[in-house]
Structures are given as structure tokens and as C-alpha cells.
Amino acid sequence: MRMGRVSILTGRSGSGKSRYLRSIAAELIKKGERVLYIVPEQFTFETERALAEAMGCGLWDADVFSFTSLARRVLNEFGERRTLMSEQGRLMVIRKCADELAPKLISFGRVYHRGGFTGECARFFIEAKRAGIEADALMDAANEKGTDTPLGAKLHDLALLYGASEAYMARTSLDAEESLRLLSELLPKSELGSRHVIIDGFDMISKRLYGAIAALIDAAPHVTVALRIDLSPECRDKAVFSADRRILNKILSICEERGITPDFITPDDEQPRHASAALRHLEREGFAFPYNRFDGEANGAIELFAATDVKAEVTAAAEKAQRLIDEGYRYRDIAIIASDTDKYLEPMMRALRERHIPFFTDAKRKLASYAASEVTLFALRAAGGSYLREDMLALVKTGLCGVNAEQAEIFENYALARGIRGSAFKSPFGEGAPAAAEEARGIVMGPLEKLSEALKDAPTAAGKVRALYQYTVDISLREQLTAEAERLKARGRLERADETAQVYNLLITVMEQMHAILGDAKISNRKFTSVYKEGIDAYEVGVIPSAADQLLLGSLGRSKARSIRALIILGAANGHFPAVYGDDGMIDDEERASLAQMGLGEMPSTAQLNDKEFGDAYGAVTKPTDKLWLSYTMGSGSDTATPCELMDRIADMFGDVSIKTDIEEESASTAPSAYSALIKHLRTSVENGHIDARAGELYAALHKDSEYARKLASLPSALFPSVSAEPLGEDAAHRLYGARLSGGITSIEKFNGCPFKHFASVGLKLTPRKEYRERKADEGLFCHEAMSLLTKELIAMGKGDGSITNDQLETLLDSILPKLIAQHNNGVLMDTARSRAAAARLIRRVKATAYAVVEQLRRGEFSISGTETEFGIGKRYPELILELPGGGRYILSGRIDRIDSYTSDSGERFVRVIDYKSKSGSAFDCADIADGKRLQLPLYIAAIEAAGAAERAAGMYYLPVSEGIINSSGKEDDFGARILKEFRLRGACLNDAKLIELGGGEDVQPTARSGWRLSEEQLKGTVNFAVDRARQTACKIAKGHAEAYPLMSKENKTECEWCDYNSVCGFDATLPCCKYRRASIIKKDDFLEEVSHAQLDR
Asked: For residues 745 and 892, what is the distance between their CA atoms, to the nearest angstrom?
């Protein structure tokens, strides 16, 4: 076997290793040699560019590969046609296997379907394969440990899934590890194997990768490997080189097996990376132990920053980038990397856009987050399942199934209100449905039903893939995305246009992978959808830079890709920079060690993973040539963070470097920073009560900028926010409520609860979305309807005096309630077992109340004379007119739940009004009347009296509609006594012994303790007080009051708790400008004395 030379190039970060390798390549090419240049996958493009610059011409005799792309090239050369399995394809295979093997899983049977499970499995399988561990060996280990032990059970499940997924993939495809094995076999036969080989870095380490390196050493005339490592005996920071030290030891072992003594080379770079002495010192001492302090000053080469929150951190970073640009740095000279891209990416992009700094981000977005992915997934779920409502609503809102936004909203509202679901979507909505809803249904269901039929006719995965692809054709998905990409290009959003174009191609890739992986395997619609979702969850969409000169924004790994003069690192908090892996994988470190002791291969431990992160952190901070900035967010409470150890060390190492914060005053170098500084000054000024001179200077400077002049105009409302706007005025109120002001008592009470609530519901007529469910308000409506129907029947039967027997009453209720249940709220009470249970509960409430009503009537002489009796224009009783100051009027109308009457022998007629309340605790409270929240009963009396009828008020009451006692077995007297006690009337009555007795006596009427027993003057005074209170409210309505000023009860319950409009009013109790109106605190005796005096003064 011919074996060549091996050279190992070692050096610290910035020692010139990559530059040295490029010079070697250039010299070899000039001599007519051919070069195979191997780098990590993500750096191939940058390496090609740098090598071309070093050559001064094209790369005719050099090829740049990663180990993965090299394997692909060699396998193609020798006719290997199996598909290279992608990471996404592996996840789809694991998902398929997990679904099929679920009944056999011991440890993971309850979690296999959860998001992230397949990803954890894939990581473990790859680690096992790289360590040379096969599925059979795992199963042997499981049996040895015993599947009744936690480790044995996990190993059993992992072995099952590992073996099944590997066997499935082996039929049609290769994964990266298998391709490396074949690469090792084929390299000696390939032309590429005879070249000079240069390896500059590794993106993965595995047993088979070392096999490929060994094959290169066997075949190539010369192999040069660069490692970031310091082999000098005086090295004090060996920990940062631990990962490369392990690679070195393995390569030395490979060479030793072949009798090769490698050459060790250290680059003698006359052009050190770091222009700053401070950065050179940091590279040597930043991770050393013990470390030496710097004798000089950093002179701005290194800066540290602690922010109060993420916004402050990214703002400071953007300002730093702007200052660098102002100093002459090109955009491409600057990189901003984040320890947590999910946390920092979006706010950082906003900060850069505000300053018009062009940037490129290498962060990728999940394919599943795009509407095109959603439309295919929701279509699969709906058509392949049973048209679940949530899937249908999500589908129409994607904007890609032929339905516009307005149609989608109307469709959604109708489906929710009517409870449309399942196969009901397949039939026309019918009479009464909005035209837009039916039109949307027709547009969506055409292609969807076609997809449903195709899925039924396709038992195999391949057939289902074809059905899904045809659905994308039917909805013109490709054409829609192409048109959107063109629109984005026309608006100059080139990167977004590229993203949009990629989405369709990636969706097709997922379908192709499913076709290749699953093929003619039979699969259910549910499992097919599960695998498809796994695929779109796994793929990501990224773009290439649209311009050469752009700031780089991204993750830690990308900072290696190109030369950087200035680096800004966000999120340099302890535990995040470097990142610290937890011992929480599929199996932990102790269990991995146990496998190794059993003779299985050694998989990487948490410590080894952390070593790599430590090395990457070292590589990042030593990358910039001129400037380094590290920052973190301090946070507060449970989110409090501390700076990473490196920041503390830098602050100690350099005498002129300290951790600055945004709490300190900084110079405002740009308009955005000046605006931020002005906001801080003004906030402080508001708190202190005076404006300082600096705020005035900043304001004057910004006012000259037209963009910021507009922002300045909005500052007063931002600094002094108010949700209590000035009254709209009488003209606006008349336009809003009508030329003739009118409303019901409920509107008056609603205003007194919160003026904005009245404005939104009565003025703007905003209504909450109606949903197909039973709310508390709906239950109350049902009880009112049921009691109304019952009392109407009693009146019609001539039983309004309660002369009906309990058996007759039960028969009557049984004839009324089933029909009402079926009709109520579009039949929602008959929809499910749960709703039918709620219906049964409502029936018990109504029946108990019905028995109580009849029993109360039996005990007295009053009879029901009216139910749902209206007063208003053209009604039984005329409208109640409230005369307003200035000659205006407010026409008050309403509906009285029940009127009972009694006519004496002398012909004198007494009436009492009763209002049904679904809350059993409803009481007649003077504070509620004083605050205008419970005006119904006295205003009902006022309406009756205003009609001029010869009727005297005997009382006004609330009657709770509650379950109470419905078992009428036992003695009639006992039952009547029990039910009367529970349903005693609550309210006010005339303190007239005879009337009390006629009204049912002490068992029916409120007692002196639980209710009000009033004199004639007190009753009239209470009624007149309520009229005056309603008049005051009407005056405010007429003036256009609409402030968010909610009432808070004595029990600290607010109008906001169940308000439909709290998302739009802007009320926030934590703001100084938002206050609750406290409920009145007034004793009954004081209230009655006040209204009596007022009555005497009339």
C-alpha cells in the first residue's frame, strides 16, 4: 500500500493557519499539482473565494469540499445511485417507525408523539452510529440491564427504533455515516484520492470520519491537517483546545498504525491577525489560568456592556455598529453574533433597520412557519381526517386556498356561531348563511374533496404524495408563490423574494423525500400526515447575501466564515456564553459510561460537548482584528442574569475597561440614539416634575429632522397617556346614538358600569364574535325564556294564581322545556354529552324555580298578570321620558320579566314587579342604586306609574333562578316550606301588614332583615331617585361621554373581569392615568332617609 506524508499544522487562533494552508495550495497548483481542499460544510463558499483571491485566478486545479460533499462526489463517480439521506428525511423515517412501533415501546410509549421526540432520537442514533454502536448491541445491553429497569427500558425502545429506521433507510438511501464508510473504500480508486489533501477544520467527528481520513492518508501523496491547538509546554489555556486535542490523538494513532511519523508545522506569520495589542493579549490570557493583567490600555479595542433589557442591549449594539461605520468601517467588516438567536434576532434586525444599516442574517426560519406549508398541512388534516373545524378555519386563513381575508373572516364567524364541523362543511350552509361564507365554502371544498377522494383511493405513501402534489396544482400554489416573489422583488425586498421562491421548492423536496423513503408502503392518512409534518418541521429556509457589503448578523458558528474587523457578541451572560449543555439527553452521562463499560463504543459526554462550546467561544472572541464588544441583559426578578466569566476577567485584566450600562448617560451619536436618550430624559422629567436642559437640546436637534419631528408630536400622549378622552360632544353623540336619544335600562346600567363599554356596544354597536357554545349569559337567557313561556301558559290556563297542582306543573314543564332546549342557541345544548349535562342542569334550575313561583302564588292573593311586559313606544305601557337640561329628552324603554297584581274588594289595584336573576346571590342594594348599576326594579315601577294607570306599587323583587330543591316527594307542606325558604323574594315591599300577607306572608316576602320594608314615601323616593339617576346618566350620554372609567364593587370585583371590550379600551390599572370608580358605601337607613327627604321636598 502506497502511503504519503502527513503534516499537522498547529497554532492558536489568529496564528495564520488558514492563510498558510492557502499559500501551500497556491504553491502546489503553480507546480502543476492538483489539490483537494476539505473544510466544514458551511465554509466551502468562503474558502473558495479566499483561495481564488490567494491564487489571483480561478480554481482550475483545486476543489473545495466538505467530507459530506466529497463522499457524494466519489459515490457518484462510481455509480452509487442511492439517495443521500438528509437530516429531515431521517426524522420522517423515525416518525414513521415510532408510529408503527408505538405498542411495543416500554419507556417512550406515552411521549413518542410529542414534538422534539424524533429529533432527540435522531441525535442519539447519529451519536451511536458515529461511535460504531449497532442496534443489536443496544438490544443486547437492554436485555442485560433488564427491561424492567429504567435504563434497560430506554435502551429497548431506542434499539427498536434505531434498528427499524436504519433497516428502512438502507433499502433506498444512504446516510452521512454510511457514505463515509463507502468513501473510505472507494477513495483509493478515485482520482480525487491521488491529490494533495488539505484539511482545515471539522464539522463532525466519528469513527467513520476517522476511517475516511485514514483512507486519504493511504491514497494521497501528502495530507496536511490544520488544528487549532497550542502544543507549547508553557500553554496555560489547554482547556480551549480539548476538542482538537482529541482529534490530534486519533490522527497520531492512525499514523502510528501505518508507521508514519507526521511533520509538525507551526505557521510563522509575519502578519498577526490582531492589529490591537489588547486583543493579542486577550487571545493569550483571556482563557488562561492563571492569567496576566495587561500593562497598557485597551484604548477602545474592547468594550463591555450590561443592559437593563433586550431592547436596550440591541439598541446599544446597533449604536456601536453605527459609530464604527462613521469611523470608516465597511458593513462587511462588522459582525453581530448572538448566543440565543431566538431571543435576539428579531429585535436586532429592527434596530439595524431603524438605522438603515444593511445586513445579512444566516439564521434560518422553519419551513413549517410559512403559509404555503400550512395550507398543505391543514388540507391534509382536513381531507385526510374528518374536516375538523380548527383545521378548516386555519386552512381558509392561509390566504392561499382561493379565499380572501374578508371571506375567510365571515366564513370563520359563521362556522363558529353555527357550530359547523365535520361533514357539515361538505353541504351548502343553507338559508340565512352570509353569501361570502357560502362562497368561501365552495371555493375551499372543491379541491379539498378532490384531495379527500384521492387519499382514500391511495393506500400507499407514493399515491398519497401524488394526491397532495395534485392539491397544490389545483390551488395554483406555485403560481401564487411566484407572483408573491415578483411583488417582493418589485418592492426591493430581494431576500424575502428569495425565501418565498425557496418555500415551494422545499415543499416539493419534502414530498420527493417521502416518495423516495416510503414509496409503495401502505400507510394511513393519519400516519402520512404525521410524517409530512415531521418533514416540514425539520426543513429550514435560508438565503444567500443579496449584496457584497453587508453586516453579518447571526449565530456563533458563522463568525468563523470570513475575516472580521469588529465583532459584537450579544447575550454574553453566564451559562449562555459559552453555552452549557445539560445532562438531559435520551440517556445521561452515567448511562453512557455504563454502555462503554459493557464494551459498546464511547459516545460523547456532556463534558466533551461543553469543551467544544468553550473552544468555539475562544474562537469567536479572538476572531476580530480591531474591535470586540461583549454585552448581556441583566434582567430582573427570576430572569436576573450575571455576566459570563470572560467579561469579569476582561474587566479585571484591562485597567481602562469596565462594564458600562444603559443606566449611565451616553453621548447621542445618531438620531435613533438621540431619540432614545430624549425619551429617558423626559420620563425622568415627568417623575421629577421638571425638564432638564439636556432634554431641551435633544428635542431641538431632533425637531430639525422631518422623520423625527413627526415622532416628537406624539410624545405628549406617550408621556401622559389617557384612556379617558374628552366627551365627544352633543353633535357627535346625536350622530352616534341617533337624533332622538333612546335606550333601554340595560344601556343606562351599562354606562354606569363603564362609559366606554356603553360607547362600544351601544354607540359603535360592536358585538363579540358569536361562538357555538353556551356562556353564562346564554344560560341566563335560557332561564328567562323558560320562565316567560311558563308564565304565559299559566295565564292562558287561568292558573296565574298558582292553582295548578305539582303533577300538572311537571307535565306543563315537560311540554315546554324539551322544545326550548332544542331551539336554544342553535341547538348547542343537544350537541355533546357535556352540553346535554349542562341542559339537564338548566332544566333542574327552571323546574325548581317554577315550583317556587307556584308555591309563592298559592300562599297569597296576587296573580300573574303580565310576562315580558314591555314599556316603550307602541307597547302596553308607554315609554318613560327623561327630560334633560336644555330641552332634550331621553326615551327609556324596557321589558318587565313579570308583573303580579291584586285587586281589593274596593277595586283598588296593587302591582308588584319581579325580575328573574340567574345569580342566586342577587340582592337589592342601595349602593347599586346610588351608583346606577341596579335601576331596573324602581324604573319598572316608574314606567307603570307614568302610564297613569290606577295601580299602586306593592313591591319590587328579584327572584333567583337556581337549582334549589326539585324533589317533590314527601309531604306537600314540607316541600312547600323548604322551597319557599330557598326562593324567598329579594327586594323591597310596602311595610303594610295586610299587603305583606296578601303577597304570601312572611314565608314569601323579604324580611325586615333580608330586604326592604318601606313606607309609601320611601318607596316613591327610591323610585324617583332611580329616575333622577337615570336622567343624570342620560345627560352624560347626550354629551358624548365615552371614557374608560370602570366601576369597582365593594368586593373589589370590576366591570373589566367579563368585559368584551377590554382589549380595545386601553385601560390598564397599573398606569397612573387609569383609575377605577369605587362603588358607593352607604347604609340603607341613610339612603332611605335621604330619598324620603327628597320626596317630601318635591
From this structure: 7
**CA 832 – CA 851 distance, rounded (Å):** 28
C-alpha cell at 24: 501551500
Distances (CA, A) of 365 to 122, 153, 427, 581, 624: 20, 36, 38, 23, 27
Average of per-residue pLDDT across 112-135? 89
Question: Quick check: 272 pLDDT over 70?
Answer: no
Q: Are 519 and 460 in contact (CB under 8 A)?
A: yes
In this structure, the chain runs to a length of 1098
Average pLDDT over residues 923-940: 91
pLDDT level of residue 970 (50, 70, 90 thresholds): very low
Write out the three cell numbers for 969: 316527594
pLDDT level of residue 752 (50, 70, 90 thresholds): very high
- As given in the structure block, the three cell numbers for residue 690 are 421638571
- Any idea which residue has 351608583 for its cell? 931
Residue 116 DSSP one-character state: T
Q: What's the mean pLDDT when you consider all of the chain?
A: 87
Computed on alpha carbons and rounded to an integer, the radius of gyration of the chain in Å comes to: 40
User: Cβ(283)–Cβ(13) under 8 Å?
Assistant: yes
Q: Count of CB atoms within 10 A of residue 834's CB?
A: 9
Helix axis angle, 135-145 to 150-172, nearest 10°: 160
E-strand stretches of 523-572: 540-541, 551-554, 566-570
User: Alpha-carbon distance 365 to 151, whole Å?
Assistant: 36
CA proximity to 901, closest of 853, 855, 953, 945: 953
Is residue 799 within 8 Å of residue 764, measured between CB atoms? no
The reply to whether omega before 578 is within 30° of 0 (cis) is yes
Kindly provide the residue ranges of all beta strands, DSSP E only, lying in 232-323, ordered along the sequence.
263-265, 302-307
Closest-CA residue to 205 (of 124, 127, 123, 90): 127
Buried b (16+ CB within 10 A) or exposed e, 771-788: ebebeeebbeebbbbbbb
Residues 6+ apart with CB under 8 A from 1031: 882, 883, 884, 890
Those residues whose C-beta lies under 8 Å from the C-beta of residue 225, and which sit 6 or more positions away, are 6, 7, 8, 9, 199, 213, 251
How far is the CA of 552 from the CAs of 203, 321, 352, 620, in angstroms? 21, 11, 11, 14
pLDDT band at 868 (very low <50, low <70, confident <90, very high): very high
Helix (H) or strand (E) holding 914: strand 909-917
Cell representation of residue 993: 301588614
Segment holding 910, helix H or strand E: strand 909-917
Q: List, as one string, the DSSP characters of 610-670.
A: HHHHHHHHHHHHT--SSEEEEEEE---GGG---B-HHHHHHHHH-TT--EEETTS-----S
1039 vs 609, higher pLDDT: 1039
Contacts of 269 (CB under 8 A, 6+ apart): 15, 16, 19, 20
b/e per residue 861-889 (b: at least 16 CB within 10 A): bbbbbbbbbbbbeeeebbbbebebeeeee
Q: Which residue has the cell 507551526?
A: 266
d(CA 657, CA 649): 10
β-pairing, 951-960 with 986-990? Answer: antiparallel
Q: Are the C-beta atoms of residues 918 and 961 closer than 8 Å to each other?
A: yes
For helices 207-219 and 242-257, angle between their N-to-C axes, nearest 10 degrees: 50
Q: How far apart are CA 1065 and CA 665, in angstroms?
A: 36
Q: Provide the b/e sequence for 967-996 (b: ≥16 CB within 10 Å).
A: ebeeeeeebbeebbeebbbbbbbbebeebb
Q: Which residues contact 342 (CB under 8 A, 6 or more apart)?
A: none
pLDDT of 698 strictly over 80: no
